[in-house]
């Protein structure tokens, strides 16, 4: 496939972009400290070298009251602007273009000094903001404009004004958060004054040609969000005030509709952008859950947008554009929208990276340096850890052989990709298979490598993975008991009433899998989450359509904590919602007594009871498989990684990181 639309240039203001791919803004944690600027420069330079048309930085506050958290990134002085030259020069050296995003957190600021349109606390932050005074609003609009002007001085090619996701500008726009009665509130027209003043004042300071991108909230997905009339009136007024491009924003952070995680269908929000494109004359940019060049091309070819923004896909693969352009799209490491190493990190105050690409944000420290040694490396195990080690070692030039005892590569990912909404995980295996092929790795499927097979290699990487834990439970051999791989693979057809033992990530996934009807051709993700036509429903929010679970599932754990609290910071709430929507019964604080013909016997709060179920699916974690490593011994040339190393809290993020780092050091 060629990507004629995606790869065609576009002129916005005085700037000509080499293609239509925008790397959307995403905070990485490298923005906040001066000493991280070289790392930030390397991170962006790598994406520019990979052909990205326009890069947008994470958000920089226009003043201290706009900080996302204490001492967060801001652009308020000439000195700061001059330091940013390191970033802009690095991108320009790679023929790239870069915009700085100006973001005022408003009531999402994780500080006791946060401000908003009105003194209304958000449901996702602990601090109640103060309402800005009338003069304070005026001053803040000027601060925005001054940051925009400083960005230009710093060598940025454009700016993006963050007017979506529920940050301060949104807080002014929606009656939900703006109770003001002065000139900045009271009517929809007055609520729009704040962003209009920001854009007018910015335009005045930077002159005509400097591109101002405005990220506009097309669907707020919260109650009392903006009506579609208000959105289009705002867009037209902003266009008149000097906006050069509109980027798409979907959903406030406090919205209870997922907008970017794996279970959101690809391209779910393209129609919202298309609606805006029908209203304004300036270019519009589509965004959210677009992760392949073919989908991006399709959106552009359909005339629904002029540009496509992808943030996480460019974390996962900095060469996204270059590979698409070279006809190597099948070598793209496709973002699986898991959020586990990017947004989950940022929300936990850790530096972002990518589960699939641990080099993201570590470009200066995790280097896969080419080697001429031609050392031979055997990798045993074709799960995420082994695949990452094999591909990374081969990229360095090492001669790699990969042994996998089953007939297919993928390990636990082969199970994950069968969970509804996790179909994208199959892309990861496509990526690895193709890279192994391109790099000439010898792949030996169906071979259980013995110590003798491995004796001739310089290094042996043992990534033999995990086996499901079998709990010591009376009746564990009863025919009602099923392992989670057997339940997911359909090896054992599971009955209509099911108990799931263990409520970790896999227990939650299996419960979703068992309640979901794969034959439901009317399944409408948007309807189930209550996303409606924005012209009929303010904020695009309507009554969710109930799901019809095909099984009665009870999910159990021994801990007394609420089920699912250990799941990902930015996705766990959505997984818990799905369980609720699917009628999954949750029981914590369980003691498992036995399984027999009657079902699963448990005790809760000292009261014995029987769950009369057809099957009991065991999702009680995993144990390392390391028989081979025990034979090879710790000494010498054997290296243990992934689940075989640590099965507790086994996850692909650690496995891939460990595999890549080991390969860098071989
Ligand atoms: P897990 O998170 O360790 O959960 C297994 C659960 O089984 C434990 O929470 C434990 O809960 C229970 N358990 C442990 N030993 C048991 C025993 N002997 N008898 C009965 N119950 C026992 O493991 P997992 O669910 O297999 O997930 C593995 C990893 O995959 C996770 O850490 C995660 O990184 C990843 N994953 C994440 C997601 C997601 O975030 N959506 C989805 C899938 C997988 P109690 O002790 O309270 O009973
Ligand atoms: Fe995408 Fe997951 Fe990587 Fe984030 S961590 S960029 S969501 S693959």
**Count of DSSP E strands?**
27
CATH class of the largest domain: Alpha Beta
Just name the CATH architecture of the largest domain.
Alpha-Beta Barrel
Provide the CATH topology of the largest domain: TIM Barrel
Query: Largest beta sheet, briefly?
Result: 8 strands, parallel, barrel
Task: Return Rg in Å.
Answer: 26 Å
Task: Note the overall shape.
Answer: globular
Structural class: alpha/beta
What is the terminal-to-terminal distance?
A: 37 Å
* Average residue pLDDT: 96
Bound molecules: NADP nicotinamide-adenine-dinucleotide phosphate, iron/sulfur cluster
Question: Number of DSSP helices?
Answer: 23
Beta strand %: 15-25%
Please sum up the structure shown.
The chain is of the alpha/beta class and 666 residues long.
What would you note in describing this structure?
α1 (37-49) runs parallel beside α3, α7 (193-206) runs parallel beside α8 and α14 (384-396) runs parallel beside α23 (652-665). The mean pLDDT is 96. The protein is 31% helix and 18% strand. It has 666 residues and is an alpha/beta fold. It has 3 domains: 10-329, Alpha-Beta Barrel (TIM Barrel), CATH 3.20.20.70; 376-467 and 625-665, NAD(P)-binding Rossmann-like Domain (Rossmann fold, 3-Layer(aba) Sandwich); 481-620, FAD/NAD(P)-binding domain (3-Layer(bba) Sandwich), CATH 3.50.50.60.
